Amino acid sequence: MADPKGFMTTPREEYPRRPVEERVRDWNEVYVPGALLPIISRQADRCMDCGVPFCHDACPLGNLIPEWNDLVSREDWRAASDRLHATNNFPEFTGRLCPAPCEAGCVLAINQPAVTIKNVEVAIADRAWADGFTQPRPPDRLSGRTVAVIGSGPAGLAAAQQLTRAGHTVAVYERADRIGGLLRYGIPAFKMEKRHLDRRLEQMRAEGTKFRTSTAIGRDLGAAELRARYDAVVLAVGATAWRELDVPGRELAGIHQAMEYLPLADRVCEGDLEVSPLSAAGKHVVIVGGGDTGADCLGTAVREGAASVTQLDIYPQPEAERDEDVEPWPTYPKIYRLSAAHEEARDLETAPAADADARLFAASTLHFAGDADGHVRSLHLVEVDERRRPVPGSGRTLPADLVLLALGFSGPDRHDGLIDQLGLALDARGTITRDTDFATNVPKVYVAGDAARGQSLIVWAIAEGRSVAAAVDRALAGTSQLQAPIGPYDRPMTA
């Protein structure tokens, strides 16, 4: 604890964002370059080094947060990097993309603004890359065992890196043309520039991990054939089966799933396309769904030059402060949060009819209406009460040339045939079942991440990847020194 009074004398100060008018004209990250380092040591001083640091429990990775806060406050960046990477393979990802349940569990957050844990994390990660602390760590010797990892999102990449470092020969199979899963084609570049992903992949290649792109297991390569080639198979295929909206007019042109829309914008940033075929330019856009994916669509549509953008959220507008009776500390509360995309929509007034920023809360879609050519032109909605019952007389109509459905995901996609070819058991939710060792009902086949857990956060995906790696290593070698931060049935803290 570098400054015993830091939490009393220093106010919370967050990573400053670039002006809205500037950042919506490009796809670069929204933060002011270099603006974090001058403030981050003071912010790390606010950590109280609690006797029982609940930030550990709130983070499924078990990040050693008080330790690296203290090291940052002393500007010992190498030691801070070592402590951070001891529990997290990809802190530059989580520091940008995780909603920081650790901050909700910060003891200081009982009656003050929490320590800026997420900002400290990303500062350490970026400094580690800048100062050369993230050198490849190839194994001293090979085990002679082989592992296939199917899926290259955060769970698959974490599992692959851990198993490679343990000495196994690992190949990662990805059905897209580039590695990264939703980190590549799903997360907009203004939230995380792809250079962060690319340099981590280069580190993994230097350690010995092999990557196989444009290979859909079950379609391009039979699942049984793959299983016969390897000593173990890890499924990290995610939960990409999107939820539908079954209302009249859904068949109209111009209504698309968010994950049909977002990857095309990422491909424009990658240079594959000059303009997205689903570009929002000049269109009235309505996003159905109030979560992070909907916010990603919002920021993307604003940058593409939409005429208007409105986001519908079926839940009522949250309060600004935690309700201690319903969601007591240290649980992660549902409160009103203003993401960078919502800040942009608010300042640019993209949705004049919205309740706040670009969002209409407690809003449920009734039906779509189209023109003579069968293209959507309007969305009809109604306000709902706490039990999602329509409020009489509250109906309204929004212009809509492009509708994006961001309603979440129900489980892994079955179109490639992987699940059926292997004969994997599924639970009632449609996710893959597993035992306490992350093993499926099929010998030698393990599963991690959203494919088994269901739709979750990036920090849980990385924790799953690290844990399944320990289970596979133990099965192949008889014992394992790899860290397993969570079990397959662990869940976030709730009241």
UniProtKB/TrEMBL annotation:
Organism expressing this protein natively: Streptomyces olivochromogenes
SUPFAM superfamilies given in the database record: alpha-helical ferredoxin, Nucleotide-binding domain
Domain 4Fe-4S ferredoxin-type: 38-69
Pathways per UniProt: Amino-acid biosynthesis
GO biological process, one term: glutamate biosynthetic process
PANTHER family reported for this sequence: GLUTAMATE SYNTHASE [NADPH] SMALL CHAIN
Keyword Isomerase assigned: no
Source taxonomy: Bacteria, Bacillati, Actinomycetota, Actinomycetes, Kitasatosporales
Molecular function GO labels: iron-sulfur cluster binding; metal ion binding; oxidoreductase activity, acting on the CH-NH2 group of donors, NAD or NADP as acceptor
PROSITE patterns (alphabetical): 4FE4S_FER_2
Pfam families reported in the protein's UniProt record: Fer4_20, Pyr_redox_2
Record protein name field: Oxidoreductase
Keyword annotations: Amino-acid biosynthesis, Glutamate biosynthesis, Iron, Iron-sulfur, Metal-binding, Oxidoreductase
